[in-house]
Amino acid sequence: MNFYKTLETIISSDKPSEKFTLFHDFYEAYKGDEVSFEADFAPINFSEPSYSSFCTVVHPLKVPKRRKLTTDNGKIILLHAIAHIEYTAIDLALDHAYRFQGLPKAYYDDWLVVADDEIRHFEMLNTLLESLGAKYGDLEVHNSLFEASYRTQGSLVDRMAMVPRYLEANGLDATPAVLERLKNLPTDPTLEKIIAALEIILHEEVDHVLKGDRWFSYACEQEGVSTDTFFEIIEKYSPGAFPKRNGVNIEARKEAGFSCDEMKQILEGHDCS
């Protein structure tokens, strides 16, 4: 089994169940040393995400708003939004492994682990959606994560900065606020399952961001640039993103590799003692 060509097929698949089966077969072969890395493979540039055939893509401001979480419809909107993030993250992790060649095997090991985690996260959320009579693809979604991956196809430094260390790290900030809101609502069995799923996702996403931090530092070293370039990269792709003044998950970000100096820039006035 060929490494890059098989990943191309998996990423291109627009049927979730097929994508997951293809991945699991590939991943078992990979872990059994039954996959070979092709020499001089030319990756394609994916012009649209694999979900575009079954999801309606709209501007981020036009996706359904997360309101009335005590109702089934409110829970569906929340679950669908997070499931979309997790589904997109599957293809992003696979694309990290597919697009950037000639790296240590540990790099590919890391992003295949992440893809495996993201599939499990998505399936947890989609199971909860189905228990409420809905499924992934029922509601409008946005392309923000895909667009970030598309714009950083030519640079491992930029990709690791923008996707794991910026967009995924933002999830470390957002999820605790969602959990706090959910825990303050009158409890019910579905709500308890949503909380449990989000707590698992938050815990495991710290490791995903840490993997991004590791390979961002590696890419910077290989290219002879300082890791201080992180903020310049984010400003290039997302002007005005920093600094933030509140809502930052300080401990999770530190655990995920953010330095004290970075935290001071992300959170104005932060004392990193």
Give keywords.
273 residues, mainly alpha, Ferritin, 2 domains
Summarize the structure in short.
By secondary structure, this protein is mostly helical. It contains ten helices and no strands.
Task: Please provide a written account of the structure.
With 273 residues, the protein is mainly α. The mean pLDDT is 94. The chain starts with a helix and ends in a 7-residue tail after the last helix. The chain folds into two domains: 1-39, no CATH class; 61-266, Ferritin. The protein has helices spanning 3-12, 16-31, 72-99, 105-131, 144-151, 156-183, 189-223, 230-237, 250-255, 260-266.
Task: Itemize the secondary structure elements and their pairings.
Blueprint: H1 3-12, H2 16-31, H3 72-99, H4 105-131, H5 144-151, H6 156-183, H7 189-223, H8 230-237, H9 250-255, H10 260-266
Helix pairs in contact: 1-2, 1-3, 3-4, 4-7, 5-6, 6-7, 6-8
Q: How would the global form be characterised?
A: globular
Q: Briefly note the structural class of the backbone.
A: mainly alpha
* Average of the residue pLDDT scores: 94
Please write the CATH class name of the largest domain: Mainly Alpha
The residue fraction in helices comes out at 55-70%
CATH topology of the largest domain: Ferritin
Q: Distance between the terminal alpha carbons, to the nearest Å? A: 50 Å
What about the largest sheet? none
Our count of helices gives 10
Oligomer category: single chain
Which architecture name of the largest domain does CATH use? Up-down Bundle
- The low-confidence runs, each spanning 5 or more residues with pLDDT under 50, are none
Radius of gyration, taken over Cα atoms and rounded to an integer in Å: 19 Å
Beta-strand level of the residues, as a percent range? under 5%
Name the helix and strand elements from N-terminus to C-terminus, one letter apiece. HHHHHHHHHH
**How many strand units?**
0
Task: Please tell me the total number of domains.
Answer: 2
